[in-house]
Amino acid sequence: MLDYFNDDLNLILENTKEVWSDIKNKTIFLTGGTGFFGVWLLMSFVFVNRKLDLNSNIIILTRNKNKFLSKHKWILEYPEISFLEGDINDFEFIDINVDYIIHAATEASVKLNSEEPLVMFETVVNGTKRVLDFAKLKKVKSFLLTSSGAVYGKQPSEIENISEDYLGAPITSDPGSMYAEGKRIAEVLCAAHHKMYDLPVKIARCYAFMGPFLMLDSHFAAGNFIRNLLNNEDIIIQGDGTPYRSYMYSADLAVWLWTILFKGQNNSPYNVGSNHSISIAQLANLISKESGNKKINVIIKNPLSTKQFLRYVPNVDKAFNDLNLKIYTDINTSIKKTIHFNRIF
User: Fold this and answer.
1) What are the protein's GO molecular function terms (predicted)?
2) Using CA atoms, how far apart are residues 194 and 301, in angstroms rounded to an integer?
3) Domain 2-212+248-275+313-329 has CATH 3.40.50.720
4) What's the pLDDT score for residue 162?
5) Per-residue pLDDT tens over the stretch 274-330
């Protein structure tokens, strides 16, 4: 499996080579290892671990080890990956040294957020509290929370790229805000643990992404459009196609998360995502062009609205300036790589 991703993994290695100096012979604990973020973190960890001869290990918290391995049999080839079976809310505090923690559990599930908002809240908030308590017990060298750009609430249309110092918030009278509010509380929990226990917490406010292993049947527009393409279906946009998003490629995401974990400033959130905005209609048209000989039409259901455009696009100057990060993969390459992977696997 890793051979297929050689170019991407080398990109990650080349752009994180300087941040791994303190991790030799160390152990990382990862929640959310079975998701999109987690799989990319696992692949890049194994690749870097062996290339740099780090002799480090990673432990994945998962509810069902065998279910995960049935989808990712390649993991069995790498003894530096081990598992702890348990739920994020009450997993066992194992008696083993843990040096770093990445808390990447809790997907932005629209279905769960809509149908069971209290379960969403408990997973985000109680899960974060449990992992922070574990981090405190282990006296970790660094703790990374993957938060979300949703914490800012609705992005004002006049702000093209929203920065970390924006003081917006989700609508508290809307139960659909549970995921976003949960992430806000998770960040506050991190801040409290940093103040009370000097826990070195890092926060990554993540936006939208694209790449192999992206779910194609969820609420992500990019995944849905690619699924349409692979099924030789027209791409149908239910709205007017004007909302603006941005998409960071998965290998770039891994570079950013590893760098923030090892070199980020404590208790000082970083936006993680691309700063290059693209409308939903433009995205659909770019994807449709990858159809080959088959004609894929983009059908926009609603006429162009006179309302101001909706935006969900970060300002990433802080990551650029403080951590010397950048966007390594453009949108066209991201689309091509995501489609190619899904055609093969």
Assistant:
1) NAD+ binding; UDP-glucuronate decarboxylase activity
2) 48
3) yes
4) 97
5) 999 999 999 999 999 999 878 899 999 888 777 788 999 999 999 999 999 999 999
Count other Cβ atoms within 10 Å, centred on residue 115.
10
Query: How far lies 60's CA from each of 11, 98, 101, 241, in Å?
Result: 24, 12, 10, 39
Cβ pair 98, 140 in contact under 8 A: yes
User: pLDDT tens digit string along 95-145?
Assistant: 999 999 999 987 656 566 667 788 888 889 999 999 999 999 999 999 999
What lies within 8 Å, CB to CB, of 74 at 6+ separation is 1, 2
What are the strands, taking DSSP E only, across the chain?
A: 27-31, 57-62, 81-85, 100-103, 142-148, 201-206, 209-210, 235-237, 244-245, 248-249, 270-272, 278-279, 298-300, 311-312
Q: Cβ distance 253 to 40 under 8 Å?
A: yes
Q: Phi/psi at 261 (nearest 5 deg)?
A: -55, -45
Q: What is the dihedral of CA 235, 238, 239, 240, to 10 degrees?
A: 40
CA 183 to chain centre: 13
> Which among 279, 308, 253 has a CA at the least distance from the CA of 8?
253
Contact between residue 112 and residue 120 where contact means Cβ atoms under 8 Å apart: yes
Dist CA 206 CA 272 (whole Å): 5
Dihedral sign, Cα of residue 32, residue 191, residue 28, residue 135:
negative
Instruction: Give CA–CA dist 44/52, Å, rounded.
Output: 12
